[in-house]
Design a protein that fits this description.
alpha/beta, 365 residues, 14 strands, elongated, 28% helix, 12 helices
Length: 365
């Protein structure tokens, strides 16, 4: 909302049910013109039998006005839909994963091949839990976006609608939602192949011990696998890497605590040295080729956590959360203690703390 535009409300058309209003959003007209009045097509003209609404009728029989996806398709654009409505058998949709998916469909087969869903689950899709259905629809939308070039994608989810139908309007306010990401990103222009340097300097040769670098994006971990060589090699390695193009700093075990990292005495996962990259550089694997090479324009993470571009997002809303609170920064280790306060259990031995400034839980100050 802060970075775009929003309205305090959006007026629907009558009747205020799903299919008429979805159709209004893609046709730009109300039910007078598009003529979708139900979540389906009213059928049955026999005066001796009650009429019924049939949802799985072709779109051409239901929607009486041109849609934006019709126009896009006719203009040579690529269109797609996931769980959109009043769109069954639409000839102007290029890729689709329907509300009732076809196990033999192209996108369905891609999800099956990826292990996201099975044929059996697709065959019984309509009877599944709506939360799970939404997850599969999300997977389908991601699959279409990642594997197919698009101009227009329509996606419809059901959980919010289902919750309000089942428990009443506003019942979603009983839920606390915390939205977080794990890291930020930096742009990368060059790659550092640290193991090329080790090969060039003979650090894997007899008498030099075994040294290896494990790249991890914006940092790299240096391991000396021969304990007897460690004290001799570490000063030499530190000087070697400190002078390498793109390396910002070489950290040894005495500095690990300040970075929140364990030492070898604490963990068998810990390195002997940690290399941090300068902005625009990325540590990559490989023992052949150039030591430092240009990179295609891409993004990377793994840089030190105080890098402003590595900061992820934190948003909390709903039950137990105060409105309108804006904090300059929290830590991701604060998330679990905050959730624990909302749920009730006492969470001990954490390095983070509950973010009390955002909570309105009774008895918490």
């Amino acid at each position: 909302m802060a970075e775009g535009a929003y309205a305090d409300s959006m007026k629907p058309i009558n009747p205020t049910v799903t299919w008429p209003n979805h159709t209004a959003m893609v046709t730009g007209v109300n039910a007078i013109q598009h003529q979708v009045l139900f979540n389906g097509l009213l059928s049955g003209a026999d005066p001796h039998h009650p009429r019924k609404v049939e949802p799985w009728r072709p779109k051409e029989q239901m929607v009486r006005s041109p849609t934006v996806y019709d126009l896009a398709f006719q203009a040579g654009m690529i269109t797609a839909q996931v769980d959109w409505v009043a769109i069954y058998d639409a000839k102007t949709i290029t890729w689709q994963f329907a509300e009732r998916p076809d196990p033999e469909g192209k996108i369905e087969r891609e999800l099956i091949a990826a292990g996201e869903v099975s044929k059996e689950q697709l065959r019984s899709f309509a009877g599944q839990n709506s939360v799970w259905q939404d997850r599969i629809w999300a997977d389908a939308a991601v699959d279409i976006l990642e594997k197919h070039t698009l101009n227009l994608l329509l996606v419809h989810f059901l959980v919010l609608d289902s919750i309000n139908h089942k428990f009443g309007p506003g019942s979603a306010n009983q839920t606390t939602v915390i939205i977080v990401s794990d890291h930020g990103f930096r742009s990368v222009q060059k790659e550092i192949h640290s193991n090329v340097l080790l090969r060039q300097k003979g650090f894997a040769a007899p008498g030099k011990g075994s040294v290896w670098v494990i790249p991890d994006g914006g940092v790299a971990m240096v391991y000396v696998t021969d304990p007897g060589q460690r004290s001799t090699l570490l000063p030499e390695l530190r000087a070697l890497f400190q002078n390498l193009e793109g390396v910002d700093h070489v950290y040894d075990a005495s500095e690990f605590l300040s970075l929140g990292l364990p030492t070898r005495a604490q963990s068998d996962q810990a390195p002997d040295l940690l290399l941090s990259a300068k902005p625009g550089y990325l540590f990559e694997d490989g023992t052949a080729g150039d030591l430092v090479s240009p990179s295609r324009d891409r993004g990377a993470h793994g840089y030190l956590s105080d890098d402003l571009l590595m900061q992820p997002i934190f948003i909390a809303s709903g039950a137990g959360i105060k409105k309108g609170v804006q904090l300059p920064q929290v830590c991701n280790v604060d998330v679990a203690p905050t959730i624990a306060v909302l749920l009730g259990p006492d969470m001990k031995n954490t390095s983070g703390h509950a973010i009390l400034e955002i909570l309105e839980v009774p008895g918490v100050h």
